[in-house]
Structure prediction request, 809 residues.
Amino acid sequence: MSVTLLPERTETESPIEARELATRRGIGDRVFFRGAGASGFVVLAIMGAVGVFLTWEAVQALSASGFSFITTSEWLPDASGAGFGIAAVMPFTVLIAFIAVAVATPIAIGTALFITEVSPTWLRSSLISMVDLMAAVPSVVYGLWGAFLLQNQVVGLSRWLNTWFGWFPLFSVSGADPNSPLSSATVYTASSFIAGIVVAMMVMPIQCSVMREVFSQVPIGEREGAFALGSTRWGMISVVSLPFGRGGMIGGTMLGLGRALGETIAVVLIISPRFDFTIHALEAGSNSVSSLIALRYSEATGFELSALMAAGLVLFAITLVVNFIASYFVARSRSGAGSEA
Amino acid sequence: MTDLLGQTSLREATTEELWAVTTEIGVIPAVISPVDELWAPAGPSGRPPTRTTLPVRPGPGTPPPAQRPIGKISRNDLLTLFGAMLSSLCITLLIFGRFTPLSGRLGFVVVWFVMFLVIYALLVSIVDNRPAVVDRVMATLLTAATTIAGVAVLSVILNTFWRGRSALAKWNFYAQDMSAAGPLDPIGVGGISHAIVGTLIIIGLSMIFSVPLALVCAVYLTETRGRITELVRSVVTAMTALPSIVAGLFIFATWVLILGQQRSGLAAAFAVSIMMLPIIIRSADVVLRLVPGNLREASAALGAPQYRTVWHVVLPTARPGLATSVILGVARGIGETAPVLLVSGITGTMNTNLLENPMMSLPLATFQFVRTPVEAQQARGFATAAVLMILVLILFAMARVLGGRQAGQLSKRQRRKATGRSLHDMERIEAADHDRYVSAVDMAAAASSSPTPYPPPPPSPPSAGSSS
Prediction:
């Protein structure tokens, strides 16, 4: 005797109605989403707390100095609140960051395009690791490299730039005489330019990995379409990859700028601090907010500590703005985080 | 001509007929029709004829064209490349040695490269058209950019090891701390054991703080969507470029100034984990997004709640990538100098107490050593940096071994394990099916005829273990 199990049927079938579709999450899922959401909240809270507590500590100095905090160049904090400000330190920071980005961005774009478009397949993963390794090399090691190896190489370049392009303010050096054979190289050392090049090496991998990610998402159909129409490889890159990746390129560049603004130890190792701003990037002596903090905090007490916190707060605010603009560009681009892989 | 497509082939149609057809359907003939009698002065509709290039069809007897080699470097390309390299080198040597008083290695390389570009473009333009020239020149520039990056990273690593070699060769460098050695002592005395231990403690604590939170947050970013998720993602991206000195200041402001704790290794670990957190989240987010959607959907279709999908499908699939992102985060965290300088401080003695007194780390030791302009100290500094680089490189090799595979690609051993698991599952399901069938038979038998209160004993179970 065989038995089949059939669903029972009622005699009169009711007409089929659209089922209501709703997600009812089980208890496990609800706990899971709460927990995951909490982790996101913690990350937001940390970021918020950084701002809040820095402000809290900086209030004392900022209320004493007021507006002169932005206009004063030297850094001699005492409780009267007049003798310190970021008018020299902040422009130096920006100058170094811009030199770094100007040097790093072409290399980053070139490397990212080389990895995604030109390099043979067997080399690709090694190159990706190489860029990741550059990102992982500690900044103090870059600092050593810059101060002990690169500086000697770059001094010649600085001298050459000064000789031929000295009429341009960025490349002029006061106190250097390019025609004198006896002129010392020390006027070119410890400059914003050298610090900028070293920071560029640290910024490049960050920019490169963002750009590489974007270029690797270029729709295969558009690429092959360009090739099918008879385009050369560079033709395809300039017509398809670059326009597609524009948002990512802008975002990556600005992320690098944010990183360059906050670079500390490498800059400390290279520059000799000075408190009168000059646009002459090749000239000896420079400064940056983070190196100011790193150099001064140890002998700082009470009021000066508060002043350093204020400088840190300004740096934090600027990098935050730059980074948010950057992540906006990355996310808004066609290739950004919003598009599902 | 009534039915052109059906009856006569296009090749046999006259030009007028073709024009009639094409104006009817509104296209201009591009590649159709025989060559000889095509261009009538004007079409029936008065349209002036457009000139197009027509392919010459091979006759029946011609052999098929040879396949063009693609994706291979031809001999011509290779010779062009080497010729350009050689001649640019010669010209540069001439310029540097004979014509001008130029000097310097950097200048030589730059001039050589520029000369190479010019000559290479010239050589290519002999045989190829302009787009091809542009293509070659741009490919050369891209290669040059990558080469610069490669040379930079190589020289960074080699420079560190070379200058630190004298101290690296001494055993006391790894076994002693600096409490008994002054800055003027030779490198035979003193070492960095305190910094090695401190680094390991700080990075271990930072991993405990940041890795679980970062992974949960990455899961949150990939498993949910909405405005808050986007906000968190933007904040994380912005945090990846948070200045490390600001992270140090933040911990200094809260832990030391407001909570009144000592500067210590624990505080340094807090600051370092703030630096590591966004890096791990961002790369783990990318890895998790690469998990194929059909795996998630298959799990959901089988009725799994989302947390089980994440735990049993998404995370195991992405495991190698996640390990890589954690390792990369650790490699970044291990080299942070500024926060440790701020919230832990410099010391020369071994300190394993987490809560009190400064704790040294390797990057901080490097920083402190090289700031003293004494030969022994600088050798120590470079050697410390070399030890740090060794740690980073080990982490890196681990990441490379683990992360060489894409999400979902299993190693041989993993595949064997997965096969074993699914075999086991199949046995289990078959056994359960069999049980259900047997009990259904029993129930039916009981309902239909048997008056006995208990069903007869079931037939013997199948050979596979029937316990579920």
